[in-house]
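Re: beginner question about structure tokens

> Can someone show what the tokenized structure looks like for a real chain? I only ever see the sequence side.

Sure, here's an example I had lying around. Input first:
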Amino acid sequence: MARKWKRAYNNFVNDCRDWFSRLGAQQNSLVSSKKGRIRMILAGVGAAGILAASYYAAGYFRMQDYGMRAKLAYDAKSYKDALENYQLLADAGNSEAMFRTAEMYLSGQGTVKNAARGIKYLRMAADRGSMEAALRLGLLYFAPAGESRTCVEHNYRLAREWLEKAGKQPEALLALGTIYQRGLGVPKDELRSQNYFDEWARTYMIKAEQGDPEAQYQMGLYFTDGIRHAADDERAIHWYELSAKQDYVKALEALASIYILGGAKIKPDPAKAEAVFQDLIRIYEKNARSGDVDALLALGDIYQSGVGIPRDYAKSVDYLIQAIEKNSPAAMLTLANLLESGLVVNRVVYQREKQEKERNANAARIRKQMEELRLKKEEEARRAQEEAERAARAAENPDSAETPDVPQNAEGAAPDANPEAIAEGAVTLIPDTPDTPDLPETPADPDSDADANHNADADAAAPAEDTLLIPDDEFSSSWSEDQVSYPGMPDPVQVDFPEYYTAEKLRQLAHEEKVKRAGTGDVTMMKELAFDALSDFGSGDGFEYGANYSDAINWFTRASQAGEDAEAMFELGHIYQTAEDRSIRNNALADAWYQKSADLCYTPAYIGLGSLYGAKNTGIEDARVSHCWYEKAAKLGNQDAQMALAHAFAEGGRGAQPDFREALKWLLVVRISLEKAGDTKSRQYQDILKLEDDFEYHLQPEEINEARAAADNMHEIYGTDW
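And the corresponding structure tokens:
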């Protein structure tokens, strides 16, 4: 065996020597000959290509891995991991990842909100040809409702440029049509506007005809609103019904609204409205069976409101109880409100309390009757005793006996009275009384008749001697001694549900559930708790958190830190500026929180800062700074800020003299907006006309003309619908 292994080893060594000798000879031939050198170069290039391909292939698969990880994390709501992977893809140049990263920074998913970084990634994606990013940028500059918090101010020129790069996406076509229809930053062009609207309609029409329920619903809206097309109720209903047949909830809700309220040519149809509501109920019940709390709340609302279908508090409460068992604070508060209104009561508790009140009332009536009977017997005993004493005195001294009070004749005796009877005291005598003249008859008084009838009824109903009366079967009591009963108020609806769900208990449970969710980082619940503390909401032992500034500040602060929430920051500034408890007021803290909120472009914070710096005797009064903050909000179209700015310029203040020209300009901006909206009969419009005269009193004609021209120019820049 050893020899065999030694022979194999020697053969292997000889083979290796032979291979190396051949390799050396080949290398000499490659280096020495031109053909050999070309072979070596080609081999090197091939190797380099293979290495490069391997590198890029590895990068490609790595990017694919990032994309897959990001999608899986996002779907699982693990937003932090999703953002990390999307950002790695974005930094590698992936435009789709840039757009996703921008959206997450703008909405604060997986990170604190960062509008500046979000806009940066949006622009990067749009520059690389992402139509989604171009559309988003265009809509941000167009600034529809709520978008002003992203720090992108109105700029209709940039909005139009980006929307035109967004292709034929429906949202872009609709916005462009609106821009030209209203003259937002461009001259009005009805023809061009209608072209965009028609293109929008064609885009959705194709999808609608292919059976897309959302597109069919959008076509219904197209023929309903009368903005992009003349209102046509019949065509609107046609598209809504096609969408509704696919159980599209928005279409069913739109149909229900039309059948309840009617339209330009359609009369209300309660029967059809009820049929639509039955379809909605069927869909909501299906979703509710799968655990959808919102569906349970919707069902509770439908049966409680009684719109479209008969009101049914029992069913409403049943669905609310199901939502409560899924820990829904909204359901708890809704049921608490129902119970406090007296419209709904717990059947068992109501019957028990009613019986208890009947027993108490019965016992009280029996006690009263017993007391009346006792008093009656005492009175009879007293009279009997007096009569006995009178008889005894008469027997002892007949001559001086008390004369009974009876009428007497001329001889001093009662008429037709037997003297023996008088002597024995069997006839009651009365003393002489002066003749009373006969009084004329008076007509019967209705009230007197009523009283007489009442007394007669009372006498008829009076208990016989030694008899106790039991209350009749028709006796009833109200639900609550504290509840006021109004004429026409319906009887409470008796519903079966757990007895421990009282209004107080439900509010307590709702508060505890909000605290629990807030503890997991739910910013919405934190803000709700803060608003509860400010609005005198809630009651119960240990839950007196109404008008509690300490709790409000605590929850708003936590919301601000957890999600950089601009609204929470603003509310903190507002508390420190305007709290009724003056010991809490702190202008420095108000300024700090307003500034934080303003950094996130929250429009109310601009107004708060304008108010703070414009207030007198605060120690930080600065009229110029106040004007700047008001103007930021005013240029975003906020009419409250525009009016405040007009007053601020007219009043002046520390650091600025009154400027009636600027005041008139901003006043005219508001007036023009009201006139374009057709609101010329309101109290606000009449007040503006009076102020206009006051401001013009301080100006020269040429200054008035300049102010009017400036106001018109503002509307040309920011649009006629500003």
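Each token stands for a local structural state, so reading them left to right follows the chain. The chain has 30 helices and two strands.
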